[in-house]
Design brief:
The chain is mainly beta. It has a domain at 84-219: YVTN repeat-like/Quinoprotein amine dehydrogenase (Methylamine Dehydrogenase, Chain H, 7 Propeller). The chain contains 1 helix and 32 strands. Strands 2-32-27-26-25-24 form a 6-stranded mixed beta sheet, with no helix packed on it. A 4-stranded antiparallel beta sheet has the order 3-30-29-28, with no helix packed on it. A 4-stranded antiparallel beta sheet has the order 4-5-6-7, with no helix packed on it. Residues 1-36 and 337-364 have low confidence and may be disordered.
Amino acid sequence: MFYKFICKQRTFHYLICGIVIFCYMNNAQSSDAFPEFGSLHVGGNPYSVVVNSITNKVYVTTEQENQVWILNSTDNNVITTVNVTGFPEGIAIDLEKNKIYTTMYGIGGTGNTVKVINGTTNKVIKIITVGTGPVGIGVNPKTDKIYVANSGAGTISVINSTIDEVLKTITIPNMTESESEPLDVGVNIKNNKIYVANDKDNSVSIINGTIDKVIKIIKVGINPQGVGIDPINNKVYISNYLDGSISTIDSTTDEIIKTITVGTGPVGIGVNPKTDKIYVANSGAGTISVIDGNDDKVVYTIPLGNSPSWIAVNNITNTIYVVNYGAGTMTVIPDISIQKIPEFGSFVTEISIIGIVGVFIIQRHS
C-alpha cells in the first residue's frame, strides 16, 4: 500500500513568516520578492486534490473526517463539505458531466466503492461497488469511462460514466494482487491509453482504452506511486517513491526515455501542458520539484514541509494546489515561470496559529 504517511503523524498548523532567501546554483540574477507561503486548513490527513477549472471549485479528500472539502478557487474559501464514509482516497472529475468521483479505500460500511458527487448540488448521487482497496482514479471524458486502481485486488475497474456502473474488471497479466498493488491511474486522452502504477511490482501497466486490456508492462523505479500525463507532448511521468526519481515514458512507443532525480519520497505529480511544466510532491523532503518538460530537467525546488502528497493544476489560471498530508493543510501556488519567479499570492485562514519564524529557500538548478 502507498507509503502514504500511515505513521499517523500529528497535525500542526503554522503561520510561516520570516526572511526569504533566493539561492541560485548557477547564473544568479535578480527577481521579484518572494513573499510568505500561507496554509489553508482542509481537514485531517488530506489525501488527494483535484480542481475544476470550469466551475472554479477545488475538491480535497480528507481521511480523518471522511469528507470531501469543496473550496472556491477564486477566493480559496470553503464552500461546503460532503460526508463520504469509507475512507476517501483518490478523486477525479469528469469536466464534461460535472461529476466528481472519489474512491473509498475500505474502512467503514461503504468501503471498496466509488462515490459520485454531483458538481452542481454537491450531493452524493450514486455509490458504485468496485474491487478491494480502491485508491487511484482517472477519467476519459471522450470515451465516457472511469478507471479505478483496486490496490487490494490487483485489478482495474472500468466504469461507464454515463450510467455510473462497472463495465469491466481488468486483471494485470502474470501477477497476483499481492505482486502488483496498483495505486494510481493516468489517462492519456490523446491516444486513449491508460497508465497504472504497480507499487509492489515496480512497474507500469499500459491499457488500451478501446479494448480495455493490458497491452504492455514496463519496469520503472522502486515503488511507483503517482502518474502524470502530458497529452500535448505525449509523455507520461511516474513517481518512484524509494528511488527519489521520476520515470519519463514516451506514450507513443511506451518506452522510458529519461529518469529524473527529484527529492526524497516523490508521490503526487501535476502537469500543466500549456506551460510545459511538471510538479512533483516530494513527501519525504517536504519540497516540490518543478520540471521543465522541454528537456525533463528539474529547474526549481520549492520548500513546503509538512509532507506534501498530491498535486492538482488549474491549467487556465496556472495555479498549483498541493495537499500537505502531515499538516492537514493545502498550499496554493501561482504557476512558476522558468524565466522569472513571479510574486506568489498568499493567504492564511488558520484559526489556531503557532508563531514560528521560517526561512524559505528556492533553488534554481542547472
